[in-house]
Specification:
Length: about 270
């Protein structure tokens, strides 16, 4: 079923998939998808729900910026180009059903699971795998599980680990330069089939929705933990991350976006 189009001057697109924070539509060319960032936020496996006004616009910008920087150092990503304030054109991939979490400091489920104080530095970056399965609550899995259930091959995991650790090194440096500590983050990878070649590329998004970012001076949380833990000022924190990255939308862009989403003239049928 076609959904109403919030961009009145664009033809309706075929929805492919709706996740908690994003939607995917059929792209204009074969092998492409349109990734739409929503303001919806969920936590604790969908038990807590809300909206963070303007989050979709900010995450679209932040993820674009980080994916482009990663592409510059040779990490293949699904990002093709930005389409508008909430949408980007991406390569269609077959998602590997794993959430790859890279941790530099103890926090969140890790701190709880192992009884470690939040903020404790880890001797070296730690890579964890979680099965992408909401019904099972995304359980932690080992490489043995991954191979036994054939969610990915040994070659896939070699490639994924290498890209995840390289991404971590790069992003740690980048965020440190902005006065932000990259505590941990989650990545997703997908299988891309192009010109008869199959390879694993970085997919999904990198934004304050799936990173823990702490201000290095004040220790303040600048990520989705503000929503998860009801700390308030969620949107301000996301805006500050975008501002430090140099991608905060201008007032004129924000006003134009508001008009596109709430047109005062009804779109032509
Ligand atoms: P965790 O400490 O709750 O396991 O989260 C680790 C990192 O992964 C943190 O930066 C938040 C991110 N994350 C997601 O992006 N999606 C999820 O569903 C969960 C549980 C965590
Ligand atoms: N995104 C996940 C969910 O709602 C959990 C989280 O980010 O904390 O289910």
């Amino acid at each position: 079923m076609l959904k109403p189009n919030i961009y009145p001057f664009m033809p309706p697109r075929k929805p492919i998939y709706e996740g908690k924070a994003k939607q995917l539509f059929e792209g204009p060319e074969p092998g492409t998808l349109i990734q739409h960032f929503k303001d919806d936020a969920t936590a604790f496996n969908n038990q807590k729900r809300g909206t963070i006004s303007g989050k979709g616009v900010l995450n679209n910008r932040i993820s674009e910026c980080l994916m482009l920087r990663l592409a510059e150092i040779g990490i293949p990503t699904h990002f093709i180009r930005s389409l508008n304030m909430r949408e980007q054109l991406v390569k269609a991939v077959q998602i590997i059903p794993l959430e790859i979490v890279i941790r530099n400091y103890a926090a969140g489920s890790f701190a709880k699971r192992y009884g470690v104080e939040e903020g404790t530095p880890l001797g070296q970056p730690l890579v964890e795998y979680f099965l992408k399965n909401d019904k099972l609550g995304d359980p932690l899995v080992s490489e043995e599980h991954i191979f036994a259930f054939q969610w990915a091959t040994t070659q896939d995991i070699d490639d994924i680990r290498l890209m995840a650790l390289r991404t971590n090194d790069f992003l740690c440096g980048l965020f440190t330069g902005l006065g932000i500590r990259l505590v941990d983050f989650k990545l997703e990878f997908g299988r891309s089939f192009e010109n008869g070649m199959e390879r694993i590329i970085l997919a999904d998004e990198i934004s304050p929705d799936n990173c823990r970012l702490w201000d290095m001076k004040t220790g303040q949380k600048m990520d989705k933990d503000r929503f998860r833990l009801d700390l308030g000022n969620v949107e301000d924190a996301y805006r500050e991350v975008a501002r430090r990255l140099g991608v905060l939308p201008t007032e004129a862009e924000t006003a134009a976006q508001g008009k596109a989403e709430k047109p005062d003239i009804a779109p032509a049928e």
